[in-house]
UniProtKB/TrEMBL annotation:
It is found in: Mitochondrion inner membrane. It holds the Pfam family ATP-synt_F6. GO terms for molecular function: proton transmembrane transporter activity. This is ATP synthase-coupling factor 6.
Length: 101
């Protein structure tokens, strides 16, 4: 019975939360989609994001500006992780088998 009395309050509260959330998302999208920026720092940030996106797509989704030394270090670390965790596929969630006693 108490839930029936709380229903109008929950409905009004959810509409307020939805309005705030939508306003926040629209505000962020407007900043990212606009071509001109009023703030020089915002403009520089948007340019860096676009530059990083271009570099990332040209490397095939790998790390941007990776040196051969960094590549060998990452490969060594991944090899240690594979040894430590059983040579399995590191990109899939492990499967657990629980038995009842």
């Amino acid at each position: 019975m108490a839930a029936v009395f709380r229903l109008p309050w929950l409905i009004s509260r959810s509409s307020v939360v939805c309005k705030v959330d939508c306003r926040r998302k629209i505000g962020m999208a407007a900043v990212l989609l606009s071509d001109k920026s009023s703030d020089p720092i915002q403009k520089l940030f948007a340019e860096k994001l676009k530059d990083y996106k271009k570099k990332s797509s040209s490397t095939g989704g790998g790390l941007v500006d990776m040196t051969p030394e960094m590549k060998t270090k990452i490969d060594g670390e991944m090899q240690q992780i594979r040894k430590r965790f059983g040579e399995g596929n590191l990109e899939e969630f492990p499967k657990f088998d629980f038995t009842k006693n």
